[in-house]
Amino acid sequence: MNRTFRIAYAATAAAATIAGSAGDRRSAAITKPLPIALLAARVAAGARRRPVADTVALASVVGFSALGDRFMLQEEFEHDDPATKDRFLRRGATSFAGAQLSYAVAMWRAGARPTVRSVAPRVGVLAESATVLSRHRPALLPVLGTYGNTLATMSALAADVPTPQPRLRAGGWFFLLSDLAIINRRHLVTDPRLRVAGEAWVLASYFTAQYLLIGGLADR
């Protein structure tokens, strides 16, 4: 990835993180799609140099992620009714499950294979958020639990691509820890300042994960 792209991505990700953590709905709606749009352009720019199946998998990652971002934006800012918020959260989790499965296809094609040794610790980390959900929003467990398993699998595959790829390994962990923080921030954190800091971490780590994962796979 060239320097201009890196600067543009960092700038748009920072803007989206600031807008989202500040709770500015209008600014968040404008800025949040921008980093993913840049990654879409990155995937398209290298399409001729990679197999079609790899480009389709990466394009699917981008598409599902953009859809998930939209649903999560609606869940966070546009509705106060708990049932409506839960509905958008389910849709967001389902969309991101599609993104994780698309990542998994790309990583599988790169030679990665999941193992109990790599998947187990990641499932263990996510078990904490499942415990929090079971107490506070048990109705969401079937969807979010399924999503968590796809995320754990993707993160494990990211650490197992044969050609050394520290970007992929780091990206897999960033994605997992970002999603872990979403549940904890919403149900365990009550201090307003900590909630702002938590949302900043969620967004910053999410955009970092997408940058590392798509960049690592696109440049493979």
TrEMBL record:
It is a multi-pass membrane protein. Keywords: Membrane, Transmembrane, Transmembrane helix. It is found in: Membrane. Its main location: membrane. InterPro entries: TMEM86B-like. The keyword Transmembrane applies. The keyword Transmembrane helix applies. Belongs to the TMEM86 family. This is Lysoplasmalogenase. It comes from Gordonia hongkongensis.
